[in-house]
Amino acid sequence: MIRLLDFIFSLVGLVVGLPILIILFIIGLFDTGSPLFRQERVGRNARPFVLVKFRTMRVDTVSVASHLASSASITRFGHFLRRTKLDELPQLWNVLKGEMSLVGPRPCLFSQEELIAERRARGVLDARPGITGLAQVNDIDMSTPELLAETDARMLSSFTIGSYFKYIFMTVGGRGRGDRVR
C-alpha cells in the first residue's frame, strides 16, 4: 500500500511540479552552473543508489555528510532551497523509481560507517530510505548516529498509513530544519 501511495504521489508531484522544477533548474544554472546534485547513498538492504537533489552548495564542495560541510559552501540560492525544502523535490524521481519512499529513514553516505552499523543493528537498513520521517520532523540529523538510528527504528516499529501522512504533513507544514551544516 505504501509503495502504491509513493508511486502515485511522486508521479503527481513530478507532473504538477514540473514548472517549478524547470524554474528552479534554470535559476540553479545561473547559481552554480550545475543545478542537480547526484550522490551515491545507502539504500534498502545497504544497496547503493544515486540520490538526486537540487544543488545547494558550490560545485567544488567536498562530498561529505551535510553536518561536516562548511556553511560557507552554501550559495545564496542554496539557502533559499534548503529553507523551503525545495532542494528535495528531485528526490521524487528516486521515489517514483522505488529507490526511496516519501517517508523513511534519510539515506546516508557509505562513509558514515557508525550510522550504518547502528542502523544495521536495529534493522533500519531493511526499510526503503525516505525523504522525511520522525527524525527529520524532530530535527535529529546525521551528526548524532546512535540517536538517529534509534529514532528511525522507533518510527519503523510503529509505522502506519496514518503516520505516513502525519510525517508528510508535518514536513510540508515546516517542521524540521533539515541537516545542520557547520
Distance between the terminal alpha carbons, to the nearest Å? Answer: 39 Å
Number of helices: 8
From N to C, what is the helix and strand string? HHEEHHEHEHHH
Parts with pLDDT < 50 across at least 5 consecutive residues: none
Share of helix among residues? Answer: 40-55%
Return the structural class.
mainly alpha
Which whole number gives the mean pLDDT? 90
Count of spatially separate domains: 1
Shape by Cα distribution:
globular
| Biggest sheet statistics | 2 strands, antiparallel
Written overview of the protein:
The chain has 182 residues and is mainly α. 35% of the residues are buried. It has one domain (2-172). The longest helix is centred in the first third of the chain and has 15 residues, at 2-16. The protein is globular and about 45 Å long. The chain has helices spanning 2-16, 18-32, 76-84, 91-97, 113-122, 134-137, 145-157, 161-172, and strands spanning 36-42, 48-54, 101-103, 130-132. The strands form two sheets. Strands 1-2 form a two-stranded antiparallel ribbon.
Q: Strands, helices and their partners?
A:
Blueprint: H1 2-16, H2 18-32, E1 36-42, E2 48-54, H3 76-84, H4 91-97, E3 101-103, H5 113-122, E4 130-132, H6 134-137, H7 145-157, H8 161-172
Parallel strand pairs: 3-4
Antiparallel strand pairs: 1-2
Essential attributes:
two-stranded antiparallel ribbon
